[in-house]
């Protein structure tokens, strides 16, 4: 099966915090970027939930989504994702029901089953009543958006005002065949994190399409492939801009934590040991980094292999102008599909 000549392009953002800057500036950068990529024709803009990570400021997706919706007019905005075990489904339904009521047909609620943090922070988050089985949490959440309260959960007779009648676009997020199978069984759209587990992409998306069951909300399978993408006018410049990803990837893989992200020149001067160079070499091969020709080939190969319906680019670049330039070049590489509400 060949992939269509046009495809929807979207943005995944984590509000990266750069060395010498601040978390507040990272959030402002996100709010300034969204209307600019909207002007380039991008389809949706998602922010990801992380906690206790000094290099990422997107700890509260619903708050940030509200600001993004107010800063734009045509983009679908949402979570990529809300990590459902961290939150009572009632609260999530209230938050995203409110967002959908205020911005009809523009809100997405991507749902993940990970914690997005270290074990100690996860325990602190889950003291509020989250946790539990992911499938059951999704069912409870669906109930709040319908007219039956919290679904089949006998503890959930409450109405999540104003969620009933204001269901956002709901997605299953994941990086494994297990998440793909769940999305297929529930008849939900599926977003795969290629930047996290590229080795699982083809198997997971093939499984999702093969086992998909139509639902009242989705008749045919629909998938996003989210990937790390950095495009610059030259390959040399793109590789320099991608240097901070190499350093932070090393930090996360070796210590599990990271501070603010280094700038490209700082990253270029980082004193890697031979073992560290081997580690980062193993972890960076799945990034789409280079000049337009090289990234174009990578994108075409990725879409042909996964047959995803939409490409979502995570572009962590230090300079806002060069970050925007990467998104601009990507639209020249990948012809945009016509906008829609899907």
Topology:
Elements: E1 8-13, H1 23-39, E2 44-47, H2 61-71, E3 76-83, H3 89-102, E4 107-112, H4 119-126, H5 134-145, E5 169-174, H6 177-186, E6 190-193, H7 201-211, E7 223-231, H8 235-254, H9 264-268, H10 274-284, E8 288-290, H11 292-306, E9 310-314, H12 320-333
Parallel strand pairs: 1-2, 1-9, 2-3, 3-4, 4-5, 5-6, 6-7, 7-8, 7-9
Helix pairs in contact: 1-2, 1-12, 3-5, 6-7, 8-10, 11-12
Architecture in CATH? Alpha-Beta Barrel
* Spatial ordering of strands, largest sheet: 1-2-3-4-5-6-7-9
CATH homologous superfamily designation: Luciferase-like domain
What distance lies between the first and last C-alpha atoms, to the nearest angstrom? 22 Å
Strand content: 5-15%
EC number: 1.-.-.-
Keywords: Oxidoreductase
GO molecular function: oxidoreductase activity, acting on paired donors, with incorporation or reduction of molecular oxygen
GO cellular component, one term: cytosol
């Amino acid at each position: 099966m060949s992939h269509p000549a046009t495809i929807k392009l979207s943005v995944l953002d984590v509000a990266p915090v750069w060395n010498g800057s601040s978390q507040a500036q990272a959030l402002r950068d996100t709010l300034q970027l969204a209307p600019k990529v909207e002007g380039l024709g991008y389809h949706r803009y998602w922010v990801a939930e992380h906690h206790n990570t000094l290099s990422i400021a997107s700890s509260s997706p619903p708050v940030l989504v509200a600001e993004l919706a107010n800063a734009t007019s045509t983009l679908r905005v949402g979570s990529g994702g809300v990590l459902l075990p961290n939150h009572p489904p009632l609260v999530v339904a209230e938050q995203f029901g409110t967002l959908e009521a205020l911005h009809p047909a523009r809100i997405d609620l991507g749902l993940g089953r990970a914690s997005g943090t270290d074990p100690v922070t996860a325990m602190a988050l889950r003291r509020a009543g989250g946790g539990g089985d992911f499938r059951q949490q999704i069912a409870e959440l669906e109930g709040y958006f319908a007219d039956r309260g919290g679904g089949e959960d006998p503890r959930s007779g409450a109405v999540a005002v104003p969620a009933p009648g204001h269901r956002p676009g709901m997605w299953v997020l994941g990086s494994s065949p297990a998440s793909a199978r769940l999305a297929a069984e529930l008849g939900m759209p599926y977003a795969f994190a290629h930047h996290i587990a590229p080795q699982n992409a083809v198997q997971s998306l093939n499984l999702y399409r093969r086992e998909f069951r139509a639902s009242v909300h989705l008749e045919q399978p629909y998938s996003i492939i989210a990937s790390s993408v950095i495009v610059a006018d030259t390959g040399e410049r793109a590789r320099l801009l991608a240097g901070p990803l190499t350093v932070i990837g090393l930090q996360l893989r070796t210590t599990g934590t990271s501070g603010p992200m280094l700038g490209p020149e700082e990253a270029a001067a980082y004193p890697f040991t031979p073992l560290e160079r081997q580690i980062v070499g193993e972890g960076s091969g799945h990034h789409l980094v280079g000049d337009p020709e090289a990234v174009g080939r990578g994108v075409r190969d990725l879409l042909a292999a996964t047959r995803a319906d939409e490409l979502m680019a995570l572009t962590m670049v230090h300079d806002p102008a060069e970050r925007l330039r990467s998104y601009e070049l990507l639209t020249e590489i990948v012809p945009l599909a016509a906008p829609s509400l899907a």
